[in-house]
Amino acid sequence: MTHAVRVExxxxxxxxxxxxxxxxxxxxEGSVTVVLGPSGVGKSTLLRTINRxxxxxxxxxxxxxxxxxxxxxxxxxxxxLRRRVGMVFxxxxxxxxxxxxxxxxxxxxxxxAAKSKRxxxxxxxxxxxxxxxxxxxxxxxxxxPTRLSGGQQQRLCLARALAMRPKVLLLDEPTANIDxxxxxxxxxxxxxxxxxxxxxxxLVTHMxxxxxxxxxxxxxxxxxxxxxxxxxxxxxxNPKHPFTRNVFxxxxx
Amino acid sequence: xxxxxxxxxxxxxxxxxxxxxxxxxxxxxxxYALIVTSTVERxxxxxxxxxxxxxxxxxxxxxxxxxxxxxxxxLLGTLALTALSTLMxxxxxxxxxxxxxxxxxxxxxxxxRALVKGLLELPTILAGMVVYSLVVIPMGTPSIFAGxxxxxxxxxxxxxTYFETYLGSVPxxxxxAGYAIGLSKAGVALRxxxxxxxxxxxxxxxxxxxxxxxxxxxxxxxxxxxxxYYPTSITGPGDSVSLLIYNFAMMPYPxxxxxxxxxxxxxLASYLIVSLAVQLCVRxxxx
Lengths: 253, 287
Description:
The complex is a heterodimer of chains A (about 250) and B (about 290). Chain A has about 250 residues and is α/β, with parallel strands linked by helices. Helix content of chain A is about 40%, strand content about 25%. Chain A has one domain (about 5-250): Rossmann fold, CATH 3.40.50.300. The longest helix of chain A is centred in the C-terminal third of the chain and has 18 residues, at about 180-195. The longest helix of chain B is centred in the N-terminal third of the chain and has 42 residues, at about 10-50. Chain B is flat, with a radius of gyration of 24 Å.
């Protein structure tokens, strides 16, 4: 089995305070891996080390090795790295000064995926379709994204990330702020990306039921470490770590 | 069941405090009302005597002569000074604000931020003195350029502070989104942060414009108060409406003082235009 992302003995401190205390994780290519754990355990920090958004946080120190698509992430140009790794955030953050079309198009242009205007509009449509948003916005692509609902905005952010044609997609609690039907649309979209495009998806969540619905694999984090990793059905039916047992028994979330 | 509390002590105190507050508000606003009414009253009288077009274009009367004339050269000077100082100050303020917001933890940025805050408190006459010794003396003459430079020094910290506030208030989530799609630092700044803060930046520019319009002290040593002919070059002396008001208001000639009132009304009207533009922009910023 090949791995799209490998993390080895990753330690991160924020202003001297340890957040990740030696994370080891190998993410299989072409699957959904869910990172599950309580708030504040370092799930978001782990995601941000993969595309080096952590570089933006003053006072963050990273030790260890992160390999993305065979590249040493910390020996690669971070901008180049981020163009190959899409990311969706917890709070929907479409650019408010650009149209619905402009949001997706900017990502396609920056990544160099679009060479001509016609190609650009084809990529935008493709990305919006893959994000399950096309039918709702095809008649109003020039509207500002602020006219969309929160759930639609989040799917627009997914489309923006997809417009770069990334091999790896990171999602940081993407459904934490949106309703059930939008959550289902996003989960379906993620399954489709893996099935049809062989994309590698890493989804951070604190909801065990979501881990079971969309995850091929689950990595359980506790106290700054990955304490358990395996196929999601196996981890949920036969949890080994006491924290995992509690999570799937519904005692913690 | 209803309980009648009657006129309690707390109600009396409430009325009393409300009454005091209203009274103080009226007292506080009175000076402003007086400024506006007296300026409008006497300004309109002066401008109506010669006609608005003539007032805005004609030369002012010389001391000791009869008649009113206008403020043409001074108005042209104010327009030139405002344009020049905005052209010099705004790009510089923008560069400073970008530096300070994009590299907030850098030692240079921290020192610059402290310097800008300090410059806000600088007595504006000092800006005039510095430009006088550094520009007017070497050039051998006061000039519109020297005046504009002094105004630039005065407006720079204000505009920078506005720019910095609006650029810094762009939520972090949009910067993150920009970096996440692979934009460079400059790309995030120019394609995400600046467009989102655009309306706020326009407010900053207008704040600079309104400062340049009304400042007088920085121009005392630098501009030359040449108001009896139209300036032909920015390297030669000129005048401003504010400086004309300052000089004419103290003259012992009623006709010159009348021109000063007319000029004050012109200045007040231009403030009104700028502040209306600011209001329009600010409404957009809040939306």
